[in-house]
Amino acid sequence: MTSTVPTAVQHTDAQPPITMAGPDFPYAYDDFLAHPAGLGQIPATEHGAEVAVIGGGLSGIVTAYELMKMGLKPVVYEADRIGGRLRTVGFDGCDPGLTAEMGAMRFPPSSTALRHYIDLVDLETRPFPNPLAPGTPSTVVDLKGTSHYARTVEDLPPVFHEVMDAWNTALEEGADFSAMNRALRERDIPRIRGIWAKLVEKLDDQTFYGFLCASPAFASFRHREIFGQVGFGTGGWDTDFPNSILEILRVVYTEADDHHRSIVGGSQQLPLRLWERAPGKLNHWPAGTSLASLHEGAPRPAVTRLHRTAGNRITVTDASGRIRTYRAAVFTAQSWLLLSKIACDDSLFPIDHWTAMERTHYMESSKLFVPVDRPFWRDEAVDDRGEPTGRDTMSMTLTDRMTRGTYLLDDGPDRPAVICLSYTWCDDSLKWLPLSPEERMEVMLTSLGEIYPKVDIRKHLIGDPVTVSWENEPWFMGAFKANLPGHYRYQRRLFTHFMQDRLPEDRRGLFLAGDDISWTAGWAEGAVQTALNAVWGVMRHFGGATDPTNPGPGDRFDELAPVELPED
Q1: Radius of gyration of the chain (CA)
Q2: Can you spell out the DSSP letters for 150-190?
Q3: Nearest-5° angle of CA 249, CA 251, CA 255?
Q4: Which of 47, 346, 443, 460 could form a Cys-Cys staple with 372, CB 3.0–4.6 A?
C-alpha cells in the first residue's frame, strides 16, 4: 500500500540512493551531472553554431540549457508555453500563490538527475500527501460503498494487508524484486543486466494483469480487484492492467512510486527558472547569457514542417512561416506530433523508428482542482450527536467511484487551500471528457458527498474549478506513454536513437528526447535523462567529446546497452 519493498531488502544511509536510470540502461546520470569536468566540450570552431530544439518542456529546456553551456546556440521552438507537462496554473480572482499542478505534481527521491536541476535553481520541495504517506494526516479507502478510515496502513482491515502481501510475493517470486532492487541500489551493473535480460525475454509479452493472474499469491479475484482499485504507493493501478508488466517493474524496482515530494510554488518553476538562468560557467557566450537572452525573451512558435535538405541538414518551418536550416536538431515533444501536427519527410528517420513511433501507446489523464477558503478537512469530525470522533473531517480519498483519487493540498491552517477533486487515467479519464469544468465538479462533489455526507465542500469554494484532459490537449494528445506487451523492441529503437553512428549518414542529425523516448515515460526523470543523451549526441555530431574522467551515456553505451531481443 505505502511501500513495495519487501522486508528482505535492508537499506542503510551508507548506500547510494537508488536512481530511476533503471535496469534497461543503468548509467549514472546523477554522477555525470555532478562531475566537475562537465558534460563535454565541442571544438571552438563550432562555437555559436545553431541547433534547433523543438519543444519547450523540461526535456527541451534541459537540452537547450546544456547545449548553451557548451557554446552552441540552441533555438527553442514551443507551440504553447514553456514547461510542457510541468504545468502550474492559478485560479482566477484568487491569491496568485494558490496553484494547481495540471501535469507532474509528485517526484520520487530516485529522480536523481531531476534533483540536480531542482537544486540548481534553488527550488524547495516538501512531502506530497499520497495515501497513507507519513505526511498525510489520514486516508479514506472507499470501495463498494464501504469506507475505511486510516492514519497508517495498520488501521486498514486484514484484506488490504493480504493484498499488499500478495503484491510483494508476486514481485519476489515472479520478478526477482529484492535482488534487482538491491543491485540497482548498489549499482551492480553485471547483476542488474543478468536479472533484467532474463525478465525481458520472459515477460515482454505479458500484461500487468496477466502477471498478477500468473501469481499463486493473486489466485483470488477479490484480491486482484482490490489491488486494481487501491494499488500501491499512489493509488489504484487497474488502468495500467493492459500495459506491459515491464513498465510496472521499472517503477517498483526504482521506488519511483515511493516517498514523493512536490515542488513548493509549482513544478513549472523548474523549466522557467532554467530558461532565465545565466550559468556560472559558459563556453563562448559572455557572462550573463541565458536562454531567455538568446531568444530575446520568447521561444520561436510551433513547428509546422520538418524536412531534410542538401548536405543532410534539418530544415524547420514554424507557424510564422519562417524557414531555418540547421546541422542538428533535437525533437523533445511527444512523438505522435510527428505523425499528425507536423508535416514530415519519411527521410527524417529510418523506417523502423517511424514504426516505433506509430505504435506508441499514450495513456489519457484528467484532473480537476478547486480552491477553498482553508484546509477545513483538518477539523475534527463529529458524530450524529455532535460529539467529536477523533477523525479528520475529510481525508485523502481512494475510491471506486468516479473521482478515484482525491488529494488535499494546503500551505498552513490559516491560508486558502486546494483540493484535487479527481485524478484519473485512461477509461476513467475518458468518462470526464465530454463534461465542462462545472459539470465535472458537480459529479465529483456528488460522489464525495456519498463518502462524506456531513461535509459541505461547496460552502468552502472561493473560485471556479480548473481542469485538464491531456488527451484533448492538441500539442500532447495524451498524458504519457505506456508500452503495451511486445513494445520493448520499439522502445529500444527510440531510446538508442541518440547513438547515431549506428544510423545511415543520411538519417543523422535529428535527435529524439523527452520522457516518452525514455524507459520511464510519464516521469520527469526520463525527460532529463533523454535530454542528456541528446546533448551527448549533438556534442559528438559537432566533433566534440567528453572528458576521459567523466564518460557520457554514449561513451558507455556498448557496456550498458539495453537488452536486444531477436526480431525473427
Answers
A1: 24
A2: ESSGGGS-HHHHHHHHHHHHHHHHHH-HHHHHHHHHHT-HH
A3: 115
A4: 460
Tell me the CA distances in angstroms from 131 to 251, 396, 406, 522, 530, one per residue in order.
17, 6, 10, 20, 30
Angle at 394 between CA 389 and CA 87, to 5 degrees: 160
SS3 435: coil
Rounded-to-integer distance, Cα 200 and Cα 196, Å: 6
> Which cell numbers in the block locate residue 479?
498524458
Tell me how far apart the alpha carbons of residues 188 and 200 are, in angstroms, rounded to a whole number: 18
Q: Is 408 helix (H, G, I), strand (E, B) or coil?
A: strand
Contact 498, 533 (CB under 8 A): yes
Residues 285 and 292: beta-carbon distance below 8 Å? no
Alpha helical stretches, state H, 37-102: 58-70
Cell numbers representing residue 298 in the block? 520568447
Chain centroid to Cα 194, Å, comes to 27
- Contact 116/31 with Cβ under 8 angstroms? no
Q: Helix (H, G, I), strand (E, B), or coil: what is residue 321?
A: coil
pLDDT profile of the chain (568 residues), mean per 10 = 39 65 96 97 98 98 98 98 98 95 96 97 97 94 96 94 96 97 94 97 98 98 94 80 97 93 97 97 97 98 97 97 98 96 96 96 96 96 88 96 96 94 94 96 97 96 98 94 97 98 94 97 97 98 98 98 95
Across-strand partners of 516? none
H or E element: which one contains 247? helix 245-253
